[in-house]
């Protein structure tokens, strides 16, 4: 089936309207008419081949919310008309240890990303959510329980939400824990909301004094301007867990010094250039850890969506037409968005 999409044919070309093919739903497939698609920084990196290896044509988008328009004969979890989501994954091997534990993002044989992943469907790689429709395995489709008026703001939960939720849950953020969130952007603003809702004492770190009130409004109990040495020093040795969402190279020691004994600094952003090597003595003299975390599995993504629906949590967004995507990318590089762009996919019809 031919559908309208927006994508790029080369790293140095703007995104433009293209026609793509979607397979007919198989026995275990769900066809989704896409309503909204969030814009992730990974989309920009991939389209412009900043990470290398991009296969063109590239249709980005892995924060997808839409309405089921068809289901395969063996699908019993979803029905036509339901509101559903698709995140960063559309397939995995389903038989390795990680898949068996519901951690498909760590599939030992490699997961299939929602765009740019190998697939037997034409053109040989997956095409994402900047499109009218997507067809996905029912194992990788998620139920959305938020009210319809919030659906655009739900879309970023499929990446920004789960990328922060998974480590917060894994390291047991909750009552009695002091948790730091570094960076108040697309990921970090969700980290603040979720850590607060989980019951942790939540401290937001920002380089910008101008974001202090914003961070408090998002749910932070305290805000630290990380360029202020006195503010940083006041928190030395006090954090159980710090989630670092910043994707630019920077000194991690400033944050490991703030951890308690046995505390963990978890990084979820991939910098263009490596971070400076951390000071080993800071880690050794407190049995501290620097860890990483990648998005989340399907079960924990559903858990996150249900938690957010129950607590009224959505992303802070700015809606755009798909025709404005290159301008949105340029603004995103300047951090000129509070805090996530979301495409109104109805604009594809224009």
Helical content stands at: 10-25%
How would the global form be characterised? globular
Radius of gyration: 20 Å
**According to CATH, what is the topology of the largest domain?**
Quinone Oxidoreductase, Chain A, domain 1
Number of helices: 11
The CATH homologous superfamily name of the largest domain equals: Medium-chain alcohol dehydrogenases, catalytic domain
- Ranges where pLDDT stays below 50 over 5 or more residues in a row are none
The CATH architecture term of the largest domain is: Alpha-Beta Complex
> Average pLDDT across residues?
96
Structural class: alpha/beta
Helix/strand order, N-terminal first? EEEHEEEHEEEHHEHEHEHEHEHEHEHE
The overall number of domains is 2
The CATH class name of the largest domain reads: Alpha Beta
- Strand-residue proportion: 25-35%
Distance between the termini: 19 Å
Largest sheet: 7 strands, mixed
Q: How many strands appear in the DSSP assignment?
A: 17
Can you offer a commentary on this structure?
With about 350 residues, this protein is of the alpha/beta class. It folds into two domains: about 1-160 and about 315-350, Medium-chain alcohol dehydrogenases, catalytic domain (Quinone Oxidoreductase, Chain A, domain 1); about 160-290, Rossmann fold (3-Layer(aba) Sandwich), CATH 3.40.50. It has eleven helices and 17 strands. The strands form four sheets. Strands 3, 4, 5, 8, 9, 16 and 17 form a seven-stranded mixed β-sheet that branches. A six-stranded parallel β-sheet has the order 12-11-10-13-14-15, covered by helices on one side. α4 packs across α10 (about 300-310).
